[in-house]
Write a structure and sequence with these properties.
This protein is of the alpha+beta class and 327 residues long. Among the domains are: 1-42; 172-325, Cytidine Deaminase, domain 2 (3-Layer(aba) Sandwich), CATH 3.40.140. Helices cover 43% and strands 9% of the residues. It has helices at 2-42, 108-131, 146-168, 172-181, 222-238, 259-269, 290-302, and strands at residues 200-205, 208-213, 279-284, 307-311, 317-321, 324-325. The protein has a six-stranded mixed beta sheet. Strand 1 (200-205) and strand 2 form a beta hairpin. It is globular, with a radius of gyration of 27 Å.
């Protein structure tokens, strides 16, 4: 029996180590990709000259380098000769890209700007859909050019941010009820996502609303799972006496997958990974479980030690700060 328990503990610690390695690798890959995009944008020059019309590469961006002449020389070569053919060096472009149309005339900087704007648009849309799963931006009539794709992404960002401002003006109870209704009813007119077994939490940080759900919700994403597991692993490392190190999926560790924690994790993720210096009111539509009572103050410490007040349906109020409940 002791051998079996030791083996189980070793297996859990190995799994924990592997998850940390995967988290570090994922973070490194994202850092590398973002650095490449920033470099492309930094290199972008809106005044960069184009190849004159009448050439096979007419209209494409050029680095301005001539064939001989002065530094930063004339892209038309030796202008003293009327019969001289234009001598150009076209800036390197990515042709074909991701199989999208009309990339051939764009520089790497323009493509980098497009990728950044589209990533920002996806994030803004995802933020709205965490609260309103069925929401979509209006279809756009922009062309398939790179500039058109940039304009389309910027329009989607504006539309998503406008919808977030509208949602922020709703009462917490209305926001949570609307979220539940979008999950629909079953054949017996009962909610698909039962209030008896699943919680919804909502809060605002800097006038931006956030919805938190537990891991059984349809909108609980792989990113939510990754962040919750990462938080659980950090808590086990920092507070081994307060956490369950024998069975990491059991009480009280499971609190990281509950609505209250998800709400705070999503808010922190949108604010650079920290809620430091924030005062946050969280409304929950079910009573807080004993796992959350035990772990939420520690979760608050890991997320920058904000002052967080939770209000339950019965009107009970709990406030946490500095790793403990203060009220």
């Amino acid at each position: 029996m002791q051998v079996s328990e030791a083996s189980s503990e070793a297996s859990q610690r190995t799994t924990l180590a592997l998850r940390r390695i995967r988290a570090l690798l994922a973070s490194h890959v994202l850092d590398v990709k973002f650095a490449a995009l920033k470099q492309a944008v930094k290199a972008f020059d809106p005044n960069q000259p184009r190849v004159p019309s009448g050439n096979s590469d007419g209209g494409q961006w050029t680095d301005g380098g001539g064939s001989g002449g002065t530094p930063g020389g004339n892209t038309l070569g030796d202008s003293s000769r009327d019969d001289a053919r234009p001598r150009v060096r076209v800036a390197q472009v990515r042709r074909g890209g991701r199989g999208r149309g009309r990339d051939a005339g764009a520089t790497e900087a323009q493509l980098g700007i497009r990728d950044i704007r589209e990533a920002q648009a996806r994030e803004a849309i995802r933020r709205v859909q965490e609260i309103e799963p069925g929401w979509r931006p209006q279809p756009s009539a922009h062309s398939g050019s790179v500039r058109g794709q940039i304009r389309q992404a910027e329009g989607e960002i504006r539309e998503a941010n406008a919808r977030l401002r509208e949602l922020a003006r709703q009462e917490p109870s209305d926001l949570m009820d609307a979220f539940r209704r979008q999950h629909g009813l079953d054949l017996f007119d009962d909610p698909v996502w039962s209030r008896k077994q699943n919680s919804v939490a909502t809060c605002q940080v800097d006038d931006v609303p956030y919805i938190g759900v537990n891991s059984q919700a349809l909108t609980y994403s792989s990113r939510d799972i990754f962040k919750a597991e990462q938080l659980r692993d950090t808590l086990i490392q920092d507070f081994p006496r307060r956490m369950n190190t024998d069975n990491i999926g059991r009480y009280p560790n499971n609190a990281v997958f509950h609505a209250e924690a998800t709400c705070l994790l999503r808010a922190a993720r949108a604010n650079g990974g920290t809620l430091e210096g924030k005062s946050i009111d969280v409304t929950v539509d079910r009573e807080m479980c004993r796992s959350c009572v035990r772990l939420l103050p520690l979760i608050g410490l890991e997320l920058g030690n904000p002052t967080v007040t939770f209000t339950s349906p019965s009107g009970r109020v709990r406030t946490m700060r500095d790793g403990s409940w203060i009220r």
